[in-house]
Amino acid sequence: MTLTPDDWLHAAYHLFAQDGPDGVRVERLARTLSVSKGSFYWHHRDRQALLTTLLDRWETLNTTLIAHAEQGGPPRACVQRVLDRLFDGAPTSLRSETQFLAWSRTDPQAAVVTARVEDRRVAFLTRQLRRSGLNAPDAAQRAELLYAALIGLLDRSGRGALSDPTPLRTHLLTLIPETP
C-alpha cells in the first residue's frame, strides 16, 4: 500500500480527535495504517513536523470556512453556514475542536495558532453583528459572548454531553438581530 502525506495526516487527525496530541504517535499511526514506521519518515521529518502540519491544516480549514461563509446573504445566514459546518461534520470534528483548544493551553505553538483562529472567528462574528445593525462596541461584546457560548456548545457536543445540540444552535443565532 502506497500512502501519501495526506493519508498520514488524515489518520493523525482522527487519533488527535480521540486523544489530543499525545495520541498522535508514529508507532500508533503506523499500526492504524497497517504499515511500518519507516513509511512515516518517508513523508514526515518527525512527529513534531506532523503535529505542526496538523495545526496548520486546522487553521487553513477555519480560514476557508469563514471566507466561504461570508460569500453573501444576511448575517444570520452567514453565521448559520459556519455553525452547520462545525456541527454537521463528523463527530471527529467536534472532538478535535475541543482537543485543539486544550492543546493551546499547554503548547506555545498551538497557543499562537489557536489565538489566530479565535481572533478570526470573533472578528467574523463581529462583522456579521455590525452588518445586522449593532454599533461597534455592542457588536464586539456580543461577538465575544456568542463565541464563548459556541465554544462551550462545541465542547459539550464533542464530549457527547448533549444528545441534540440543534435547539441550542438555534438559540445562538437569536443573538444575531435580523437584518434591518
Explain what the structure shows.
With 180 residues, the chain is mostly helical. It has one domain (5-173): Tetracycline Repressor, domain 2, CATH 1.10.357. It has nine helices and no strands. Helix 6 crosses helix 8 (136-158). The chain is elongated and about 60 Å long. The mean pLDDT is 90.
Outline of the structure:
With 180 residues, this protein is an all-alpha fold.
Quick check: average pLDDT? 90
Assign the structural class, choosing from mainly alpha, mainly beta, alpha/beta, alpha+beta, or little secondary structure.
Answer: mainly alpha
- How much helicity do the residues have? over 70%
Query: Which superfamily, in CATH terms, is the homologous superfamily?
Result: Tetracycline Repressor, domain 2
Give the SSE order as H and E letters: HHHHHHHHH
Total of domains: 1
The total beta strand count reads 0
CATH architecture: Orthogonal Bundle
Strand portion: under 5%
CATH class descriptor = Mainly Alpha
Q: Counting H and I runs of at least 4 residues, what is the number of helices?
A: 9
Poorly predicted regions are none
What sort of overall outline do the alpha carbons produce when their principal axes are compared?
elongated
Give me the CATH fold name. Tetracycline Repressor, domain 2
Keywords: DNA-binding
Domain HTH tetR-type: 2-62
InterPro entries: Homeodomain-like_sf, HTH-type_TetR-like_transc_reg, HTH_TetR, Tet_transcr_reg_TetR-rel_C_sf
Protein name: TetR family transcriptional regulator
